Every structure is written in C-alpha cells, then in structure tokens.
Amino acid sequence: MTPLKIATFNINGIRARLPGLLGWLERERPDVVCLQELKAADDAFPAAEIEAVGYGALWQGQASWNGVAILGRDTQPLEHLRGLPGDPGDSHSRYLEAAVHGVLVACLYLPNGNPQPGPKFDYKLAWFERLIAHAATLKANDHPVVMAGDFNVVPTDFDIYDPKSWRKDALLQPQSREAFQRLLDQGWCDALRTLYPNERLYTFWDYFRQHWQRNSGLRIDHLLLNPALAPYLKSGGVDAWVRNEPHASDHAPTWIEVGGGKRKPGTGH
Fold first, then answer.
1. Spatial distance between the Cα atoms of 213 and 246, rounded to a whole number of angstroms
2. Which contacts of 116-125 are long-range, i.e. CB under 8 A and separated by 24 or more positions?
3. CATH code, domain carrying 75
4. Per the structure, how many domains does the chain have?
5. Model pLDDT for residues 116-140, shown as the tens digit of each residue
6. pTM score, two decimals?
7. Residues taking part in catalysis
C-alpha cells in the first residue's frame, strides 16, 4: 500500500491553538490527522486556514467542548459516518468516520468519565460499550482501518509516570482498562505499544505540578489498526516538541507510518 503518516492530536481548543496546529502541520506533514476537543461550533472551525497549508477537512463541532475533525493532506476526506451508533439521544460531538487516502479513519474522543463514580463515569462506560460494538464491524473490514483519538484510558501502569496519585481517576479504573482490553481482544493492534513494547511513551502531560517539565506523563492517545492494516505498520512516535511550544495543548501529536511491504510478524520492521 502507499506509504502514509497518520496522526492523532487532542488540540484542546482549535481556535486558541491554531498557530501551533498550523506550525505542526507544515513541519511534520502528516497525510491523515484526527483532531479532538475542538471546543468550537461548526461555523467557527478554521477550514480556510487549514486549507491554506494543504489540508482538506471534515469536522463535527460543538460549542465550548468536545468536537472532532479529520484532515487529509492534499485531499478532502470522504465522510462515512457522523456520530457513534447506539444512542440516538447522545448529542456529544465525539465520533467521525471518513475515507482518506485509501484508509477508513475513525476519529474518536472517548468521554473522560470524571468524577467517578457517578453519571459521567456511567456515560463513559456506556459509550465504550457502543464503541466496542461498532468496532467489531470495523475490525472485520477487508479494507485498512485505523481508530485514532483520545481514548481517555491509561491501559496499564506502564503507561503512566506514577499510578499512585491517579488511582481514583476514571482513566485508570479497572472497568475502563477492561473495556479497552476487550476492544484490543477483537483483533486490533495497539500501534505504539507494538512498536515500543518496553519503552515508556507518553502523549499527555497535564498543566499542573510541572508535569511536562518532569516528564510526568500518561499514554491516553492511541492508534488502533485492524488486521488489514496492522501488517503495514512501519514506525511511530510522539511529537513531544509540540507540547513545549507556547500556549500548547496538554497533549502532543501521536503518529504512525504505514505502507510499503508488510511488516514481519512480531517485529517493528
């Protein structure tokens, strides 16, 4: 398949972070981008500015919070699905699916779930169940599929700098981790963990207690590949330099490269 660079980035407010987003797009030139937490209504999405640096865009906005988008370099993403099936009453803008450069791309922003226990955590788990049900159909697709986004789950204690102070957080709850594992058990490849089985990789550093300066991070942004795409995984990483820019998001872009010949089973090559 044609080589592609696919990235996911929780932008944490696209209007406030637009200069940083545009600078990253121009420097790194990913072919496909999934954005989360736009925090902007549909008519406030900066489509013209993004098009000016070479990207077509598809978005599902929401004023003040949530919001997802899919960008395609030198192409317009073709919408496949808007909103996660299973709950017609769910008004949150958290899920978008499109075909881009021959790959079916599912961009998601899974609910945070805090405080837990409570209604927000119940919503998180119910949303997760809907995702697992829909993901089963995507996993079985004969075409390459990537599910990318902010899953708001720290899969294991190896994916966080120090779990002790986070034990009560919704991101580390046994129910959250069990749901993520059931998703993987369908046959999805956790791309970054596959490439770096023994390395601590973080994608999020909150704004408190100098967590960025101390590299006290969490891995909560994930790229999951279906069996049709997983054999083509070549490389991946985190553009941590973006987190160090002025007015940065608390997340950094996370990316993979796929394409060319198939990877040998059990290796990153």
1. 14
2. 116/168, 116/169, 116/170, 116/173, 120/170, 121/170, 121/173, 124/152, 124/170, 124/176, 125/175, 125/176, 125/179
3. 3.60.10.10
4. 1
5. 999 999 999 999 999 999 999 999 9
6. 0.96
7. 109, 150
